[in-house]
Design brief:
By secondary structure, this protein is an alpha+beta fold. It has six domains: 2-40 and 156-186, Phenylalanyl-tRNA Synthetase, Chain B, domain 1; 42-150, OB fold (Dihydrolipoamide Acetyltransferase, E2P) (Beta Barrel), CATH 2.40.50.140; 208-399, Phenylalanyl-trna Synthetase, Chain B, domain 3 (Phenylalanyl-tRNA Synthetase, Chain B, domain 3); 408-475, 2-Layer Sandwich (Phenylalanyl-tRNA Synthetase, Chain B, domain 1); 495-692, 2-Layer Sandwich (BirA Bifunctional Protein, domain 2); 709-795, Ferrodoxin-fold anticodon-binding domain (Alpha-Beta Plaits), CATH 3.30.70.380. The strands form eleven sheets. A seven-stranded mixed beta sheet has the order 28-32-33-37-36-35-34. Strand 39 (738-747) and strand 40 form a beta hairpin.
Length: 797
C-alpha cells in the first residue's frame, strides 16, 4: 500500500519532520515502511509557460506553430498538436534537453519543416494521468517561469508499506488511520475525519432490505441529485495519481478517494439505471450471473452476497459493482452505498472469482461498521467541491440497525510494568491511550479502558493488547535492557530441524544453489506434463484456485514448474527446495497420510559441461558433510524411476545401506512438455532417511605418501543385479587397498547376451606404506574374478 504525506498532512501537521524520520518512526512503532520515494520529482525542470502566439501549421491540419515564453527572456518556437492550445494560455512547458517522466529526453527537432525547441505538456505526458484529451491549462495568474511543482500540488512523498504488516489493523487501511498514529507519536493535534455535516430529514429515499443479516451488519443508502459528471479537482486527481490510482471522473474518484482516505469502500449506482424502487442485500441465487465492471460475466453461488434491485443482482457485495448500473457521463442522480459486510464471505468470494479489489482487501480485514456513516458524511462534505451543484435528495437510509455495543477492557498498572519491564507513569499511560482515542476510567489497580469501535472488530480485546499499544508508542527502544533474572537451560533441539539447516547451508553455500519456495499444491497442468497426474493425491474440497486442488506427493515436481520461467532470464539455473509431500495411500501411526520431508534440486545449463556429473558430485559432498560416510549410487529397479526422470541417465542414492533418494537427467518427453531445451539434472533426497542413517565417526587420516593405481573394471551381470552389490565385491577383493569405487558406465548390447548388462567402474588402489605395482593390480583382478560368481557376474576383459 502507498501512503501520501501530502494526504496525511490534511489531518496532522508534520511540519519540521523529514519524510525519513516519519518512515523510521512508523517502522519502530506501527508497521515497517519498505520504501520512500518522491512523486513528481521528474517534473522539477518543468516551468510555467505562456503561449504568446498560436497559428495553424501551413503543412498540417492539426498542428499549431506557437511562441512560448518560459521566463528566460526569449520566445521559443514550439510545434504543438493539442486541439485545445490557444494564445494567452498559461501552460506547463519543458525546454529541449529536459527529461520527462518515463525517461523521454526532449530534443530540438523539426516537425513538418518547423523548428520546435520544447514541448507544451499534458497531464498524461507528465505522468499525472493515464490519458489526456489535450494540454493542461494552468490558472491565468500562474507566474511565468515558476517551477510547476510550486504552482500545482504535484510534488509528494510516498511511503511504501507491505499490506501483510497491517492485516490485523483494519483502521490502518486508510490515510486517516496513519494520521492518527503520527499524531499520537509526535504529540500533535489530529483534525477530525469529517466536519459538521447535516443531511436532509425528509426527501427522496430508496427502500433498503437486508435479507442476509448474518452477512451484512449495516447498509446505508443516500440518494444524490444534481450530478454533473466530469473531472475531479486537480488536488484530488494528483493525490490519487501519487498513490497509483487512475483518476476516472469526479464521482468515482470521490468514492476511491474516501476508500484510501478513511479505509471505507463505497459504491455509486446510477439511480436511473436501477430497476425497481428498492435495494435488496441477499445471497446470490445458484448460477445467477452478474456482469461486473471489468466486463466479465460472473457465475455466482449462494455463498456469495449481492446487492440486487427488482431485476436481479447489480453488484457483487464488497468486491465489485455491476456494469449495468455504473456511473456514466450522462448520470444525473445516483444512489451512494456505504456498508459493512462479513469479512469471511467477502474473502471467499474474492478468491473464488479471482476478483481481488481494493474494496475486498479492506472488507476482508473486518472493518468498523461505524465507519460506514462517517464515510457518507465525508462524501457529502466534499461533494460541493468535487461536483458543484450536487446535493443529497433526502435522508440517508441506515438499514441493519447496527449499534456499537461497547467494549471495556481492564488495565492494571502492575501488569504494564511486568510486561514492558519498566514502570511508566500513570500520566504517560493515560496520554498515550487517549491520543489513540481510548477512553480511560480510573480503578483501584489501574483503569477500565473503553475501546473505540475502529479498534474493537479484531484488534483490541484483552489487557495485553492495551499494553502493546502503550509499549509501541512509548517505543521499545526507550526501555532500558536488563539481564534476565532467571536460570537459562539449554533448550532441546529438534534433530529434524538441525538437519534441515545443515542441508540448507550445504546446498546454498557449498553448491551455490538458490532456495525456492513453492506452494504445497501441485497444479493439474504441471502434473499432466510430468506424467504423474494418475498418481494418488490428497485433494482439497475448497482449493485456493480451480487448478490447485492436489496436495503434492513430492517436492521436485513443483520445482520443475519454476524451471522454464527461470531459464528465460538465466543461462544457468541452480534451484533447491526443502519441503513436505503427502502419500495418502500410506498411513502413519496416527492414521494420517504419510508425510515425507525432502530436499529437492535441479541444475539446468544451456551450454558448458554436463550437469549430471556436478549433481552427482554434489550429492556425494552432501552425504560426506553430514558425516554419513560415502553415498553409493545404484541403478533403479525396473519401473522404479519417476516418469519425468531419464530412463538411462538416472541413479538411486544409498546411504548407510538404505535408499535415501535419487538423481538423474530430466526425461526428454518431460523436457519437451515443459518447454525446456537445455540439459537438466535433478535430485531428490529423503531427509527422514538421512536422519535415520548411522553417523560415521570422522578420524584424522594422513595424506597419502605413495601414488595410487587407477584401474577400470567392467563386470557383466544379469539385468536385475544392483550395482551396489558389485561395488561391495570390488571393495572386498581389494583387501583394504581399494580407496574409491565409482560407477561410470552401463552398457547393454547383443555382444553381452540377452538379459545382460556391463557395469564399468573406476577403482582406485592405494597403500599407506608402499608403492603398488602390476602384481598388486593382477592379484586384485584375480581375487575379483573369483568373487564375481557370488553375484552371477564375470569380468569383462
Amino acid at each position: 500500500m502507498k501512503l501520501s504525506l501530502n494526504w496525511i498532512g490534511r489531518y496532522v501537521d508534520l511540519g519540521g519532520i523529514s519524510p525519513e524520520e516519519v518512515a523510521r518512526d512508523l517502522t519502530l512503532s506501527v508497521a515497517e515502511i519498505e520504501g520512500v520515494e518522491t512523486f513528481g520529482a521528474e517534473l522539477k525542470d518543468v516551468v510555467v509557460g505562456e503561449v504568446l502566439s498560436c497559428e495553424a501549421h501551413p503543412d498540417s491540419d492539426h498542428l499549431h506553430l506557437c511562441k512560448v515564453a518560459d521566463g528566460s527572456g526569449e520566445a521559443l518556437d514550439v510545434v504543438c498538436g493539442a486541439p485545445n492550445v490557444a494564445k494567452g494560455q498559461k501552460v506547463p512547458f519543458a525546454r529541449a534537453g529536459v527529461t520527462l517522466p518515463g525517461g523521454i529526453k526532449l530534443k530540438k527537432t523539426k516537425i513538418r519543416g518547423a523548428l520546435s525547441l520544447g514541448m507544451i505538456l499534458s497531464e498524461q505526458e507528465m505522468g499525472l494521468a493515464e490519458e489526456s484529451e489535450g494540454i493542461l491549462v494552468l490558472p491565468p495568474d500562474s507566474p511565468v517561469g515558476k517551477p510547476l511543482t510550486e504552482v500545482l500540488p504535484v510534488l509528494d512523498t510516498i511511503l511504501e508499506i507491505d499490506n501483510k504488516s497491517i492485516t490485523h489493523r483494519p483502521d490502518l487501511w486508510g490515510h486517516y488511520g496513519f494520521a492518527r498514529e503520527l499524531a499520537a507519536l509526535y504529540g500533535r493535534d489530529l483534525r477530525p475525519a469529517v466536519g459538521p455535516v447535516s443531511l436532509p430529514t425528509e426527501g427522496e429515499t430508496v427502500p433498503i432490505r437486508i435479507e442476509a443479516g448474518d452477512l451484512c451488519k449495516r447498509y446505508i443508502g443516500l440518494v444524490l441529485e444534481g450530478l454533473s459528471v466530469g473531472p475531479a479537482p486537480a488536488w484530488m486527481r494528483y493525490l490519487l495519481a501519487a498513490v497509483g490510482q487512475r483518476p476516472i471522473s469526479n464521482i468515482v474518484d470521490l468514492t476511491n478517494f474516501l476508500l484510501l482516505d478513511l479505509g471505507q469502500p463505497m459504491h455509486a449506482f446510477d439511480l436511473e439505471r436501477l430497476r425497481g424502487p428498492e435495494i435488496r442485500v441477499r445471497r446470490a441465487g445458484e448460477g445467477e450471473v452478474l456482469r461486473t465492471l471489468d466486463g466479465m460475466d460472473r457465475r455466482l453461488t449462494p455463498a456469495d452476497l449481492v446487492i440486487a434491485d427488482a431485476g436481479g443482482a447489480v453488484a457483487l457485495a464488497g468486491v465489485m459493482g455491476g456494469e449495468d448500473s455504473e456511473i456514466r457521463p450522462e448520470t444525473k442522480k445516483m444512489l451512494l452505498e456505504s456498508a459493512n459486510f462479513d469479512a469471511a464471505t467477502i474473502r471467499r468470494t474474492a478468491f473464488r472469482t479471482g476478483l481481488r479489489s481494493e474494496s475486498s482487501a479492506r472488507f476482508e480485514k473486518s472493518l468498523d461498521p461505524e465507519l460506514a456513516m462517517t464515510a457518507v458524511l465525508k462524501f457529502v462534505e466534499l461533494l460541493d467541491e468535487v461536483c458543484p451543484g450536487a446535493r443529497p435528495a433526502g435522508p440517508a437510509v441506515d438499514a441493519g440497525g447496527w449499534k456499537f455495543p461497547g467494549l471495556q477492557v481492564p488495565l492494571r498498572r502492575k501488569r504494564v510494568a511486568l510486561k514492558l519491564g519498566v514502570e511508566i507513569p500513570d500520566e504517560k499511560i493515560e496520554k498515550i491511550l487517549s491520543s489513540l482515542s481510548f477512553v480511560l476510567h480510573p480503578s483501584p489497580d489501574g483503569w477500565k479502558v473503553d475501546v473505540p469501535s475502529f479498534r474493537a472488530t479484531k484488534d483490541i480485546s484483552i489487557e495485553d493488547d492495551l499494553i502493546e499499544e502503550i509499549g509501541r508508542i512509548y517505543r521499545y527502544d526507550n526501555i532500558p535492557p536488563k539481564a534476565p533474572m532467571a536460570a537459562l537451560d539449554l533448550t532441546w533441539k529438534d534433530p529434524a530441524l538441525v538437519l534441515d539447516r545443515k542441508v540448507r547451508r550445504i546446498l546454498s553455500g557449498d553448491l551455490r544453489m538458490r532456495e525456492a519456495y513453492n506452494y504445497s499444491f501441485l497444479p493439474d497442468e504441471l502434473a499432466e506434463r510430468l506424467g504423474i497426474a494418475g498418481e494418488e493425491y490428497l485433494v482439497l474440497q475448497n482449493p485456493i484456485a480451480e487448478n490447485l486442488s492436489r496436495i503434492r506427493r513430492d517436492v521436485l515436481p513443483g520445482l520443475l514448474g519454476s524451471l522454464e520461467l527461470n531459464l528465460r532470464h538465466h543461462d544457468e539455473v541452480r534451484l533447491f527446495e526443502i519441503g513436505k509431500g503427502y502419500r495418502p495411500e500410506v498411513r502413519d501411526e496416527r492414521g494420517q497420510p504419510l508425510e515425507v520431508r525432502q530436499a529437492a534440486g535441479l541444475l539446468a545449463r544451456k551450454e558448458g559441461e554436463d550437469p549430471f556429473v556436478e549433481v552427482k558430485g554434489g550429492l556425494e559432498h552432501l552425504v560426506e558433510r553430514l558425516d554419513l560416510g560415502e553415498g553409493e549410487f545404484d541403478l533403479f529397479e525396473e519401473g522404479g524411476a519417476p516418469p519425468y526422470l531419464h530412463p538411462v541417465r538416472s541413479l538411486v542414492l544409498r546411504v548407510g545401506g538404505g535408499i535415501a533418494g535419487f538423481m538423474g537427467d530430466l526425461h526428454p518427453s518431460a523436457a519437451d512438455a515443459l518447454g525446456v531445451s537445455c540439459r537438466v539434472s535433478l535430485f531428490s533426497v529423503d531427509l527422514k532417511a538421512l536422519l535415520a542413517a548411522p553417523k560415521v565417526e570422522r578420524r584424522y587420516v594422513p595424506l597419502p605418501t605413495y601414488p595410487p593405481i587407477l584401474v577400470d573394471v567392467a563386470v557383466v551381470v544379469e539385468e536385475d543385479q544392483r550395482a551396489g552389490e558389485v561395488a561391495r565385491l570390488i571393495r572386498e577383493a581389494g583387501k583394504k587397498l581399494v580407496s574409491k569405487v565409482e560407477l561410470f558406465d552401463v552398457f547393454r548390447g547383443p555382444s553381452l547376451g540377452e538379459g545382460k548388462k556391463s557395469l564399468a567402474f573406476h577403482v582406485t588402489l592405494l597403500s599407506p606404506d608402499r608403492t603398488l605395482g602390476d602384481k598388486d593390480e593382477k592379484k586384485f583382478l584375480d581375487r575379483l574374478r573369483r568373487a564375481l560368481p557370488e553375484v552371477g557376474g564375470t569380468l569383462r576383459e
